[in-house]
């Protein structure tokens, strides 16, 4: 309602409306009293006029003398206005005439006198236009026979406008209004001065201080010395600004410290980058340096083993020969394990360095799975594990990086074989199912058609709390099955990274004692990724994941 008005204007408006109402209310009582006094004075005038008229009437109308007991006055003819001068009219009416008179004031007066025999007269004042008019009625009584029983005989009615009463009323009202206006004006001036000095000036000060603070000048302080709530408010405001300044200083200091840290981070980032580059170079050269002699060691060990086995077949099973074969087998196992670890490390480094290129091609999932089972079957047969292929008829031809897809699934398969437990230990035939199925497009994020390839085994299973951890580098589950089998703990970590490259996800469902299901869910069409960001150089060496696994 008061939107857009200043505080001063609002206060003044509300105060003037309130004061006007108060002054008007205060003037009502004196005005009523004044009007009543004037009307009472006019009642006296009316009485005297009627008395004069009576005397005049006695002579002018040749009345038969003053009223006597038991006799009515000799009244003029009914309804005749006996006197009418200067707008004043007077008449005398008998009781019967008054009762049927047209004038309600006359009829009311008769009723009034009959109800109150002690009353002598009555007056009614009213405004007729701009002039005050008085109606006056006086009862005429007669005494009964032998002086007993006063009876109402009629009334004398006087009607007159009063110029003096009118002017008195108007003048007095004007004075009253003038006095009220003067009081109002004085009150407004006093109020305005007080408001300005006590309220608006401190508010202005506070506003100035707030504006300065908003502009960022936190050194400015409000100085209000009124000793009241405004001073308290001002002091609180000043504390607030002081706190703000302190906080700002602290933030500046933190910012400066963060700048320093940022520079340090930048420096360490660049040294990390350098270190990563060195690590890549180191891995590349070390792997080369390690793999060459390792391949020779493995090769010669294989050769020696072959010779030793040949000697054994020729029928000379001496204790020394058997010992030699055992030692050679140990060398070969250790050498192959070492080669597999080096290959895995190299592969990891290459993926992390973004050095792995995607070669997207059309892949027949059934053929691919069939080929993988063919690769794993020798190992499976060795461990008496049966393998089954289940490829749904509606699995489409997909577009993906075939080599990486095979690497992931082969890793799942080799783990399934590796951790499968023999019939004698579990009481059930160890088996692996390689299953491929089509996942139709769903709503929302699943708007693309996908294919799920799962490796299901009935091996030892993986505890719930380790199901995430096994995808971390070098993590191997706690269970006894891991200790019995060889491995590096890098296989699933590499699978996870490769799956990301294929825009695919890996799901694991496993129950301890019942088996595991590792699934790769990949899109039917893999779109080539955006060009990779610059990464630390790692020499691109051919990773031989499948061969490494086979070597384990
Ligand atoms: P590695 O097989 O070389 O140990 P992985 O990263 O391939 O490394 O696997 C990590 C761990 O996950 C394994 O050590 C094993 O504890 C657990 N694991 C993987 N596959 C299976 C499986 N099919 N059944 C039971 N445990 C498994």
Task: Note down, in words, how this protein is organized.
The structure is a single chain. By secondary structure, the protein is an alpha+beta fold. It folds into three domains: 7-182, no CATH class; 222-357 and 539-552, no CATH class; 359-527, Histidine kinase-like ATPase, C-terminal domain (Heat Shock Protein 90), CATH 3.30.565. It is built from twelve helices and twelve strands. The chain has helices at residues 7-60, 95-99, 104-115, 163-214, 229-313, 319-352, 365-382, 402-419, 423-426, 480-484, 491-501, 545-551, and strands at 83-85, 88-94, 121-128, 131-143, 150-162, 360-363, 386-391, 398-401, 431-439, 450-457, 505-511, 515-523. Strand 11 and strand 12 (515-523) form a beta hairpin. The protein starts with 6 loop residues before the first helix and ends with a helix. Mean pLDDT is 84; it is low at 60-81 and 534-552. The site of adenosine-5'-diphosphate (ADP) has 20 residues, from helix 8, helix 10 and helix 11. Adenosine-5'-diphosphate binds next to helix 8, helix 10 and helix 11.
List descriptors.
binds adenosine-5'-diphosphate; five-stranded antiparallel beta sheet; five-stranded mixed beta sheet; 12 strands; Heat Shock Protein 90; alpha+beta; 12 helices
Summarize it.
The protein is of the alpha+beta class and 552 residues long. It contains 12 helices and 12 strands. Strands 1-2-5-4-3 form a 5-stranded antiparallel beta sheet, sandwiched between helices. A 5-stranded mixed beta sheet has the order 7-9-10-12-11, with helices on one face.
Describe the strand arrangement of the main beta sheet, using strand numbers: 1-2-5-4-3
Domain count: the total is 3
What percentage of residues falls in helices of 4 or more residues?
55-70%
Give the total of beta strands: 12
Helix/strand class? alpha+beta
In DSSP terms (H or I, runs of 4 or more residues), the helix count works out at: 12
Question: Which spans have pLDDT < 50 for at least 5 consecutive residues?
Answer: 60-81, 534-552
Strand content: 15-25%
Bound molecules: adenosine-5'-diphosphate
N-C termini distance: 87 Å
- Based on the structure, what is the oligomeric state of the protein chains? single chain
Principal-axis shape equals elongated
- Could you describe the largest sheet, including whether it forms a barrel? 5 strands, antiparallel
The arrangement of helices and strands along the chain is HEEHHEEEHHHEHEEHHEEHHEEH
Rg calculated over all Cα atoms: 61 Å
Overall mean pLDDT stands at: 84
